[in-house]
Design brief:
The complex is a heterodimer of chains A (105) and B (118).
Chain A: E1 4-7, E2 10-11, E3 19-25, E4 33-38, E5 45-49, E6 53-54, E7 62-67, E8 70-75, E9 85-90, E10 97-98, E11 102-104
Parallel strand pairs in A: 2-11
Antiparallel strand pairs in A: 1-3, 3-8, 4-5, 4-9, 5-6, 7-8, 9-10, 9-11
Chain B: E1 3-7, E2 10-12, E3 18-25, E4 34-39, E5 45-51, E6 58-60, E7 68-73, E8 78-83, E9 92-99, E10 105-108, E11 112-116
Parallel strand pairs in B: 2-11
Antiparallel strand pairs in B: 1-3, 3-8, 4-5, 4-9, 5-6, 7-8, 9-10, 9-11
The chains are: A mainly beta (105), B mainly beta (118).
Chain lengths: 105, 118
């Protein structure tokens, strides 16, 4: 099974900061990565699919990049509503899997 | 508006079983892949099982293979998860999720809590 390792597991940031979260796969997964945001007590929300495709309604301050084993989620200017936990997911192969999460606080 | 509503969670002893349901609305149910994803208290997300549109293909996480069965009843717009031989580490909120389409998930239910404890 493909393992996804996110780093850091948590980070402290302020409104206006640029935030970068990385996701490393245990084997090459081409462009089979998505990113989710989860706020406390809520289900996850899909932000980005296929490494860099922003979902409808997601602010343009979110962006994704990468290929193969190394992927990045960037928030260009952190907003108050962005304090949450972020998860990467691989859909390259079964069983699907998620990274361990990054808490932005 | 897409809605997914899970039910069937509760308290069960180790070795017991439970059947979770997820009722979908606001989309053409049979056209979409669906999945169960769980989250243990204070932990990350764990993909549990997925089923294709029409139900031909089913996939499982290694941690539940042989114990859990995913199925769907498209006539009732309902996704099911039969969970057997439950263990303490199956304790989690179980979310139902809809494919975007495919195997990223663009709509999620609020989840149903399963607690396995003696």
């Amino acid at each position: 099974a493909i393992q996804l390792t996110q780093s850091p597991s948590s980070l402290s940031a302020s409104v206006g900061d640029r935030v970068t979260i990385t996701c490393r796969a245990s084997q090459g997964i081409s462009t089979g990565v998505a990113w989710y945001q989860q706020r406390p007590g809520k289900p996850p929300k899909l932000l980005i699919s296929d490494v860099s495709t922003l979902r409808s309604g997601v602010p343009s301050r979110f962006s994704g990049s990468g290929y193969g084993t190394d992927f990045t989620l960037m928030i260009s200017s952190l907003q108050p509503e962005d304090f949450a936990i972020y998860f990467c997911q691989q859909f390259y192969d079964w069983p699907l899997s998620f990274g361990g999460g990054t808490k932005v606080q | 508006e897409v809605q997914l509503l899970e039910s069937g969670g509760g308290f069960v002893q180790p070795g017991g079983s439970l059947r979770l349901s997820c009722k979908g609305s606001g989309f053409t149910f049979n056209n979409y892949a669906l999945a169960w994803v769980r989250q243990a208290p204070g932990k990350g997300l764990e993909w549990v099982a997925g089923i294709s549109g029409g139900g031909v293909a089913r996939y499982y996480a290694d941690s539940v293979k042989g114990r859990f069965t995913i199925s769907r009843d498209d006539s009732k717009n309902t996704l099911l998860l039969q969970a057997e031989h439950l263990r303490d580490d199956d304790t989690a909120v179980y979310f139902c999720a809809k494919g975007a389409p495919g195997t990223v998930y663009d709509s999620w239910g609020q989840g149903t809590l399963v607690t396995v404890s003696s």
